[in-house]
Amino acid sequence: MKRTALRFITTTGAIALAIGLAGCASGGSAGSGDGGSAAPAEDLTVGVAMPTETSERWINDGDAVKSQLEEAGYEVDLQFANDDIPTQQQQIEQMVTKGADILIVASIDGTALASQLEAAAAKGIPVIAYDRLINGTENVDFYVTFDNYEVGVQQATSLLQGLGYLDAEGNETDLSDKKIIELFAGSPDDNNTGFFFDGAMDTLKPFIDDGRLTVGSGQTSMDQVATLRWDGATAQKRMEDLLTSTYGGGSKPLHGVLSPYDGISRGIITALQNAGYGDSIEDGLPVVSGQDAEIASVKLINDGVQFATIFKDTRKLATEAVKAAEAYAEGGEPEANDTETYDNGEKVVPSYLLESDIVVKDNITSLLVDSDYWTADEVASGVAE
Questions:
Q1: What are phi and psi of 104, to 5 degrees?
Q2: Which residue in 92, 95, 253, 373 is a FRET match for 102, CA 20 to 30 A apart?
Q3: Residue 47 phi, psi dihedral angles, 5° rounding
Q4: What is the DSSP secondary structure assignment for residue 381, as one 8-state letter?
Q5: CA-to-CA distance for 347 and 130, rounded, in angstroms?
Q6: Please, which residues bridge with residue 100 across strands?
Q7: Counting Cβ atoms within 10 Å, is residue 29 exposed (0-12), middle (13-18) or buried (19+)?
Q8: What are phi and psi of 213, to 5 degrees?
Q9: Distance between CA 334 and CA 310 in Å, rounded?
Q10: Domains of the chain in sequence order
Q11: According to the model, what pLDDT value does residue 88 have?
């Protein structure tokens, strides 16, 4: 049976939404008009804006959000923007014009949607930022994400485990060997990138400070190590350039690479393999971290090529986004477990943070297969069925 709730309307002299929803939004985003009346209860449409279909992760997110919303009874308008900012702006504008009642937005550029969200606010449409904070606007009502600083901590922890400085439980070993690493970060226009990088660098800092770790190229600032649009080809090219400029084309030792995302990791690994560092970690390939548990990288981990990834269960993230949408539809407020961390420059956005896990070869089955995220056959083939 289709879920029903108050739908927002615009009438002459009143741009508003149902009274119950007006009270739930923060910063004047939803219900920012000057009073109004509610239409008869009818079906709600949720607009879902995802950044791209070039990443397996975002395809899974879009599918998970859509399926869970439809299971709850909502109409869903799901759009992917192919990593093109004007396309995403246009898609959100069309969702607002076509009468979406709630928006769930995973932005490409967290600073590029202010005018679109202002239009949504004028119609009293609540906006839920999905995994990427939308910055520079008060017209974002809620944020669902993972603990992004902790994700960065986990990325660096996995690198330190692979290098032998930490054991499987995260405790320091007695290894005092000096090793050389390189650093990669995500896209500078993604708000999460800074949290990932800060968490990772805070974790690596003691090892860099005491000389056990050295960044061979000396490139340690965000502007030096960022990877626009999280693009694997861009990361591969930078790794190739680093190998030429710093490592004699592959003749000098390199022990590990901090990578913030599996697509970037695969580009890095390709460059390292092409430079002759070996086909696997056992053969001398540097330890490479990752994120998102993409199936191609899970296979690489299983095969001893990539050392680790961070598993962010997008099914759980989708569930929290749907819960937030339901709360707004029912005239309430979503449950936040963080009301301090995520300042978008205009307001602190109430947020719900989820936990993530480090995946290495030994726990692929327990974390990914037993939870039905991937099957054993998919892990073996590296292809989603």
A1: -120, 120
A2: 373
A3: -85, 130
A4: H
A5: 17
A6: none
A7: buried
A8: -115, 140
A9: 26
A10: 4-140+314-353 (3.40.50.2300), 148-312+358-381 (3.40.50.2300)
A11: 98
Q: Contact, 368 vs 374, CB < 8 A?
A: yes
pLDDT on residue 43: 80
CB 300 within 8 A of CB 120: no
| Backbone φ and ψ of 270, nearest 5° | -60, -45
Is residue 180 within 8 A of residue 254, CB to CB? The reply is: yes
Rounded-to-integer distance, Cα 349 and Cα 139, Å: 10
Q: Write the single-letter amino acid at 5.
A: A
367's tokens: 């974390």
Contact assessment for residue 8 and residue 101, using Cβ atoms and an 8 Å cutoff? yes
Q: What is the signed CA dihedral for 184, 221, 312, 108, rounded to 10 degrees?
A: -90
Each residue's pLDDT, cut to its tens digit, for the chain (385 residues) gives 223 333 333 332 333 333 334 334 443 333 333 333 333 224 899 999 999 998 989 999 999 999 999 999 999 999 999 999 999 999 999 999 999 999 999 999 999 999 999 999 999 999 999 999 999 999 999 999 999 999 999 999 999 999 999 999 999 999 999 999 999 999 999 999 999 999 999 999 999 999 999 999 999 999 999 999 999 999 999 999 999 999 999 999 999 999 999 999 999 999 999 999 999 999 999 999 999 999 999 999 999 999 999 999 999 999 999 999 999 999 899 999 999 999 999 999 999 999 999 999 999 999 999 999 999 999 999 999 8
- The answer to whether 78 and 103 have CB atoms below 8 angstroms apart is no
Q: Which of 131, 156, 160 is nearest to 65 (CA)?
A: 131
Answer yes or no: are the C-beta atoms of 181 and 307 closer than 8 Å.
no
Residue carrying structure tokens 């600032």: 221
* Residue appearing with tokens 């904070």: 133
| Whole-angstrom distance, CA of residue 376 vs CA of residue 63 | 21
Task: Give the three-class secondary structure for 133.
Answer: coil
Decide: 27 and 141 in contact? Cβ < 8 Å.
yes
- For tokens 């609540």, the residue is 126
- Contact, 124 vs 15, CB < 8 A? yes
Q: What angle do CA 188, 190, 193 make, to 5 degrees?
A: 70
Q: Which residues have CB under 8 Å from 248's CB, separation 6+?
A: none
